[in-house]
Fold these 2 entries.
Entry 1:
Amino acid sequence: MHRSQLFALLATASAFAPPRGHAALTRSAPSPQRTTRRSMDEDATYEAPSDSTTIDDVIDVEQGADDRDADALKRELLIKMSASARGQAKSEYLNDDVEEIASRLEATRPSAVSLDDVRGRWSLGFCSTQLFRSSPFWMAGRATCKDGKEAERYDWFCEMHRKATMVSEIGAVRQIISEDALVSEFETTVAALPMRVGGAMPLNVLGSIVSTASIEGVGSAADGSLELELLMGDVEVKGSNLPGIRQALDAGAKLDSRALSDALPIDTPRPVFACTYADDEIRISRDGDRNLYVYVKESGDTTPTAYDDVAADLGIPALVSGVLNAISS
């Protein structure tokens, strides 16, 4: 299956058990078994975000059911994902179908997942929880909470956070994994001048929330999953189109999460992010609560997005040009 086919299937979206024994984490090769670090909580239901996308390609699913099991499962998985708005459409039967197919695909893995398998740029195509929890910042937040009531309160807080930010539209959500770091890019758009009775001026504030965590340990679970032990670094906003603000952000304004964590009377959180399946097209990952994340590979490049092509002009020149062209045509 070609990568263009994978993205074409995802473009049809209308809006954007328990863990087994694990191996001790080391910086290089998998090591002997260790015990589970935390237990699972039940997934909650979530509000659908205002995600949107367009169909730019034609869906091509010519491969038949007689192909290898993994290819057939991937094709079925992508079709289900494309109808689920990245898991945020609150369709229980669709999300359950994705979970079931992903579990079957995990079972087809021919060998243990390695760090080489997961290097590159990966676009999030499905998430069984809120999309922003794919960021190591939010994983670290969860890791500070004990299982049970504290975890339930954290889940509730995340749900309220998403409801409070429903005015924003979520764009690309990706992870970039290199030898020693995991970078999360979470692109958002919000109306610059919202109006009182629906709609807004056609000016949008753009930005990408970029969270960087170092990979402190690499381990292998008993089932062959790759485990990445993460240590949260910093959070910054890149690609802002706000004049003045963009210059300050590009000058190095960022939140040093590691320094903040050191200043608080808590143990430094080191969440474990498991990669349970990976090939050159699809990656399946799970966090400490076994929430499901399915990624489609963009490329093998491990360089974070520069966002140099985003002008800090709030889109005003483009709007004026569009108005003049419309009037003169």
Entry 2:
Amino acid sequence: MDTCSFKIAAAIFSYWTVSTGMVFVNKQLVQLTPKDLSLFIVWFQCVFGALCLYLISQLSRNWNGNIGPSLYLHKHHLIQRDMIISSITFISALTFNSVLLKYISISFYQIARSLTIIFVIVLSAIVLQQKVGLRVLLACVLIILGFYIGVHEEIQQYGLQVVGVFYGGVTSFFSALSSTVCKKCQKENSVSSLQLTYIVFTIGCIILTPLVLVTSQLESALYLQVDQTYFWCLLFLSGLCCLLVGWISTLQITLTSPLTYIISTNSKSVIQTLLAVFWNKEAKNLFWWLGNVFVLSGIVLYAIFNHKESQKSDKERFIQKTNCSGIEKKR
């Protein structure tokens, strides 16, 4: 195996491991107590992430950039409208995701979050002015059908609460909104993904600090009637996973392509679902599995169709640019 192939394999395996681990860790966190600590968990993840990136940046400056990227944070970043909106959508997605895990099983997580792609398509068409092809719409039909089958079976056969479906939809919406807004913000401000993550984490700390104090979630976390060592170990693991997922996701896209990344994330979801079913010794019927197959098939088809349409658009822009250059040379 050459060096490039090894890096790609390592990035994909790391993403599968860290991303799956984060879901299981967060599930353990929200199950430890009946109290709602969703805001506190996200606040801690933001504080942990911002501090880690700050330390890495400082070490990088001292070692002439040999350790990691040199990140910067200017005052105008903290009051910039795009950055604030990106931070709000990001922390909203993380917060609702924590709440969602209180009401669903990990095995149902893939279906509960499956509407993210649908919201991404709708928001990309509205915010980024991207065209939606017929084949992409057909993929959406498969996803929605799989979502309906999966939700119906989970409610009828396994006692899923309707509130779990609601939070699944809300989480999917904010995840899609965060992805779309951050993409637009990164493009317009010419910042790297890691730089944007650092800014978003920092603004998230500022926004969430008064909220965790007003809601008494910080106080509740400090005086939980559970094993404090176990709780804080899980919390640190959660913060570490949150930071690593963002970095490894960017690395995976850089080493491969957005298409490979989407297929990789859904392969991870399959493994995560299977792990949850076997670990918790859950018995699922044929229609439940059929819903999962429809969702995964729709997402993979969407990734393939979207990739082909992007290549076609890039080719058309290249031809148009070449023709314009030819005309200018003739003049």
